[in-house]
Amino acid sequence: MIAEAEPELKALTMTVDNQTVNFTEGETIYQVATRHLGEKIPTLCYDDRLEAFGGCRLCVVEVEGMRAPVASCTTKATDGMKVTTQTAKIEKYRKTLLEMVASENRSVDVDPLSGYASQELRTLVDHYDARTGRFAGKKSGTSNYDDKNPFILRDYDNCISCYRCVRVCAEQEGDYAINVMNRGFATQIITEFNSELRDSQCTFCGQCVQTCPTGALGDAKALRATEVEGKIEKTRSICPYCGVGCSVDIMTRGQKIVGVQPAMDGPANKGALCIKGQFAFDFVQHEDRLTQPLIKQEDGTFKEVDWDTALDAAAEGYRKVLEKYGRHAIYGVASGRAPHEAAYTMQKFIRAGFGTNYIDNCSRA
After folding, report:
1. What distance in Å separates the CA atoms of residue 167 and residue 105, rounded to the nearest whole number?
2. Helix ranges restricted to H, 159-295
3. pLDDT tens for residues 272-282?
4. Which of 62, 18, 23 is CA-nearest to residue 41?
5. End-to-end Cα separation, the chain, in angstroms
6. In the CATH hierarchy, which fold is given to the domain comprising 13-86?
7. Cα–Cα distance between 200 and 179 in angstroms, integer?
8. What are the residue ranges of CATH 3.30.70.20 in the chain?
9. For the segment 57-77, what is each residue's pLDDT rounded down to a tens digit?
10. What CATH number is given for 105-285 in this structure?
C-alpha cells in the first residue's frame, strides 16, 4: 500500500506596518510585531515571561476590519490580518494614557538601582512628552515604609497597578505571596492579611522588584548606594552559590559593587534568582573581611603574615595530619562565596592531592 502524502502546511502570514511577515499559530500581534519590527509597540503591563494581561492598553494597534483599536498583547494573529502599529490617532491615545498614569504617581523619576525594569515608565513618559501635568490631582497607592524587611522597598506611591509583581510571584515563583486589594485609586498591592513581607509566603527572590516598571518595588540594598558616585556598569557573571549556574549582572559604581540583577537571557535562570543570588553580596566589600593571612599563635592570638609564610604553615599542617592519621583524616569544604575556579581547585586539591573524595561545598546545604 502506498502511503498518502501528507498535505503541505500553509505558511501563515500577516501584514504589519505594510510589511508581510510570517508567524506561528497561537502567537499574538505583539509577539509577531516585536519579533519582526523591534520594540516599536510600547507597553507597561507586559513581561514576556508572564501570561498577557492587557491592562495598560498602551500596546493597542489598528487592525483592518475592526471598529476599534485592540490590545496587541492579547489579540491572536490570524492569517491575512493587516495591522498598523503607529498612527497619529494611536500615538495621541498612548500619550493621553501616559499622562493619566503619570498623574497618579508621586514621581516617574526613580533611581536606576531600583530594579531591572524600573525605568520603563520614565522612558515612555519622556518619549511621548507626557509630563504635561494636565491630569494632576488625586494620587493612588500608599507606600509601606514601615515594612522591616531589608531587601525590598515597598514604595507604592509609584504603583500603577500593572500587577506584574503579583503575576510573576504567582506564575514564575509559585509563591502567591502578594495580591491586590480594592479598586480604582484605592488599589493596593498587599500580602495576606496586609502583613509584612517577612511574615508572608515571600521568599525574597526579588522577582517582583525586577519586573516592576516604575520602581514602586525597589531593591532596598542597591538603593543604599545612591550616594556612591559614578555611572552604573554591569558585568555578566555566574552566581557562585549553587550548581544551577544562574546568570547575573553585577552592578558597580567605580570599584564598589552596588547590586546584583538577574540576567533575563540567562539560559539556566531566565531572569530568576534566589535570595542569596539576588541580595547576598555584602561579604565582598565587608569591613570585617580579611585582607591579610593570619596564623594562630600558641597563646591563641592571630598574627598577620605574608602569603608565602601562610601557605608554608598550611602545607605543614596538612603534612602532619596526613602522616599521623592518614588521607581519610583530611576533608575539604569549598565556599559558595568563592569563584567557581576556586571550587574546582579545591576539589582537585583533595582528590588528586590526597586521593579521597572527601570534598563538599557549603552551597549544597
Report:
1. 21
2. 164-171, 207-211, 220-223, 275-279
3. 999 999 999 98
4. 62
5. 62
6. Ubiquitin-like (UB roll) (3.10.20)
7. 11
8. 105-285
9. 999 999 999 999 999 999 999
10. 3.30.70.20
